[in-house]
Design goal:
Two copies of one chain form a homodimer. The first copy, chain A, has 110 residues and is mainly alpha-helical. Chain A is 57% helix and 11% strand. The relative contact order of chain A is 0.14. The first copy, chain A, binds a DNA duplex (30 and 30 nucleotides) through helix 4.
Chain lengths: 110, 110
DNA sequence: TCATTATATCGTAATATTGCGATCTATAGA
DNA sequence: TCTATAGATCGCAATATTACGATATAATGA
């Protein structure tokens, strides 16, 4: 009780759920959108852009990294975070059948 | 503390996060995929397809409904759940710039 | 070497999620 | 009306997430 029963679901379902979960917080969405905007790799100045304390941002970055959505590379004194295109492609592929199937439905299915 | 500071983020960021969060559990992904598969509206037989008790499934359905990803219509004695194409279109639109931007990045950005 | 800067980690409090047994509600059918 | 069935809701226990102050780590520059 309380713990998600991941073992009862398929690898694919768990994979999609894990990626979606990583995006399931506005701070993490904001981080992603910031990385998109600055285009070049931004380092820890992400902290300045968010209304959260440094340890909290660090924790969110860690979760995004664990999910594979971003990478972090040591750049001298600081860390360079950027989006990982591989994982985003994967997420798109995982969601594509859902988008296609769901939007093909008639609005008043029931 | 412990409560997400949603008010500090944009409406768009919160909207995307809420949809992603709703998909952030394998059971809910499984429900969505089942609804996609049966194509016609399936009712409460979803419970039989999942390795979870009826109250738990009901709760997951509620969350998907709150997020707007599915609709539930009373059908005599039972309830007919189906995907809501509007919300799926919206989610695709919200994610599209991310996919486009992220996959356009060179792999070795750092 | 020592101070500074950048970031991660620890520890902890508040809150949210997950899961389910028990129970409630509402419709269907006898 | 009575009973059965489908779902929702309640209440609780276990666990996970969110947030942050304090502190640790590691590279930079004086």
């Amino acid at each position: 009780m309380g713990a998600t029963k991941t073992e009862h679901f398929s690898k694919r379902q768990n994979e999609l759920a894990a990626l979606a979960k990583a995006l399931g917080h506005p701070a993490r969405v904001a981080i992603i959108e910031h990385l998109l905007k600055v285009d070049s790799c931004i380092c820890g100045s992400i902290v300045d852009k968010l209304p959260l304390a440094q340890p909290t941002v660090s924790q969110h970055l860690k979760e995004l990294k664990n999910a594979g959505l971003i990478t972090g590379t040591i750049e001298g004194n600081s860390i360079c975070y950027c989006l990982d295109p591989k994982t985003w492609t994967r997420l798109r592929d995982l969601l594509d059948p859902h988008f296609t199937g769901a939007t093909a439905k008639k609005a008043e299915c029931c």
